[in-house]
Amino acid sequence: MIEVSGLSKSYGDYQAVAGISFSAQKGEVVGFLGPNGAGKTTTIRMLATYLPPTAGTATIAGFSVTTQADEVRRRIGYLPENPPLYGEMTVREYLKFIAEIKGVPRSATSKRIEEVMERCFVADVANKLCQHLSRGYRQRVGLAQAIIHDPEVIILDEPTSGLDPNQIIKIRQLIKSLGENHTVLLSTHILPEVSAVCDKVVIVNRGRVVVESQLSQLSREKSLEQVFLESVSQEDSVDAAA
Amino acid sequence: MRNIWAICKRELLSFFVSPIAYFVITGFTLLVGFFFFNYLSYFQRAQQMAPMLEMRGGEAPNLNQYVIEGVFQTMVVILVFLIPLLTMRTIAEEKRKGTFELLITSPVSVGEIVLGKFASIAIVLLAMLSAALIFPALLVEFGNPEVPPILSGFLGVLLCSLGFASIGMAVSSFTENQVVAGVASMVTLLLLYVIQAPAESLGGTWAEVFQYISPIEQLQDPLRGVLSLKSMSYFLSMILLGLFLSRRALEAYRWR
Ligand SMILES: Nc1ncnc2c1ncn2[C@@H]1O[C@H](COP(=O)(O)OP(=O)(O)OP(=O)(O)O)[C@@H](O)[C@H]1O
Ligand SMILES: [Mg+2]
């Protein structure tokens, strides 16, 4: 479903992503991990067709993110790092707008809106203006926006940041259930989250993939935390030695 | 088409919850009203002196020339300053709030984004200019102006305002900063507005070129009641040029 090969992004001289490759199968939930500044958001933005890569290729559902961006856009749901809300709209108005531009059939729109508000636990703020929502609710509306058109591939940049512990559990359950018939790529800093919802983990550091593994294979030998710390610090020491 | 309409509706909603639209529409109506009554009192004074003028073989003062042309021409000046206030937020605001990332990664083409936004501004301008038609309507009710030049003049000013809006939108597509967008559009429109000034001293081909691209020169025909092909095609080209440039600017952003 997602095939990434040698994907790179430079901002001027600075290489934020340096040849990342990984893949995600249909129905897999992939956790995208890495320290701050590792290049997660940059990679995700390239996959979501927001930023053009400087090198490499990526395909989503078989379509190239560079040459067939329109096809990719039709098939992804995307929650950016900051939920992209229009403050002056109510949650319901906002979701209706999203349904329109994502091509949800007119007849199905209001049903989908209610469904998705239910699933993302935002039904109680349906008539509130987005600008008056708390951080956690903004995040949940952002998530509702990403799944309203039932996309094949769902890309989430830190979907549980800003949520209270109770919501974190509920949203994880939601993501896990989405993973049953969608492909989900999510970035996060919370390691237990990966263990709880992901089938596969990709760890990046300094713009490179340092670990790509099925979760089931990992945990037999070491805990995810050990793997994460080792892979990230190893890179650091290699760098320091050079 | 559905996408264009969705974006247009959303923009209109933003316009009417933000104070800017009300501020611009009220300001416009007040200013036009002020100038209207000014021109009207000029006209009255001219009428008092009319017998003297006519004795010397001059023409009687004409309501259309004195008041209506004056009001329409003044509208254009006011629009030069007010339209940037309407267009400056179109793209800049989306980039600031991060919703630009949402639009760009949605199955909506850049052309649809541009057309939807332009349509919303066009609706606001149409409402605003129609409201200002109350002043010419007063003249028709209480005086006897010629009506066709009022209608063609209105159409001319409307097309001109759409041209200005389109240019303003193009300018604001090139920046992420609202203030920069506003100031740069104002400067651009002001330059366009005064461009025929040096024409007389220049002479030759340049004079003709400057006169051709001057909106004031091009408004002369519709103000006199003539919907000439030349001026209509001029205003339409201005609108299309602005839309084209906006699209290019956003496309460049998409792939930068
Ligand atoms: N527009 C930009 N111009 C220049 N450098 C940038 C830009 N955007 C990101 N970077 C740099 O690219 C690197 C990767 O950033 P990115 O946002 O992808 O990290 P991240 O893995 O998402 O981090 P975090 O965990 O903090 O969200 C960082 O060093 C960042 O400073
Ligand atoms: Mg990030």
Overview of this protein structure:
The complex is a heterodimer of chains A (242) and B (256). In chain A, the strands form two sheets. A six-stranded mixed sheet of chain A has the order 6-7-8-3-9-10, with helices on both faces. Chain A has a four-stranded antiparallel sheet with strand order 2-1-4-5, with helices on one face. Chain A has one domain: Rossmann fold (3-Layer(aba) Sandwich), CATH 3.40.50.300. The relative contact order of chain A is 0.17. Chain A is of the alpha/beta class. Chain B has one domain. Chain B has 14 helices and no strands. Helices cover 85% and strands 0% of the residues of chain B. The longest helix of chain B has 30 residues. Chain B starts with a helix and ends with a helix. With 256 residues, chain B is mostly helical. The complex binds adenosine-5'-triphosphate (ATP) and magnesium ion. The site of adenosine-5'-triphosphate has 11 residues of chain A, from β2 and α1.
Shape of chain B: elongated
Q: Roughly how much helix do the residues of chain B carry, as a percent range?
A: over 70%
- Give me the secondary-structure category of chain B: mainly alpha
Q: How many distinct domains of chain B?
A: 1
Cα shape of chain A:
globular
Indicate the structural class of chain A.
alpha/beta
- What is the level-2 CATH architecture name of chain A? 3-Layer(aba) Sandwich
Helix content class of chain A: 25-40%
Detail the poorly predicted runs of chain A.
none
Q: Strands across the major sheet of chain A, in which order?
A: 6-7-8-3-9-10
* Biggest β-sheet description of chain B: none
Assembly type: heterodimer
Task: Write a short abstract of this structure.
Chain A has about 240 residues and is an alpha/beta fold. Chain A is about 40% helix and about 25% strand. Chain A has helices at about 40-45, 70-75, 90-100, 110-120, 135-145, 165-180, 190-195, 215-220, 225-240; strands spanning about 1-10, 15-25, 30-35, 55-60, 65, 75-80, 155, 185, 200-205, 210-215.
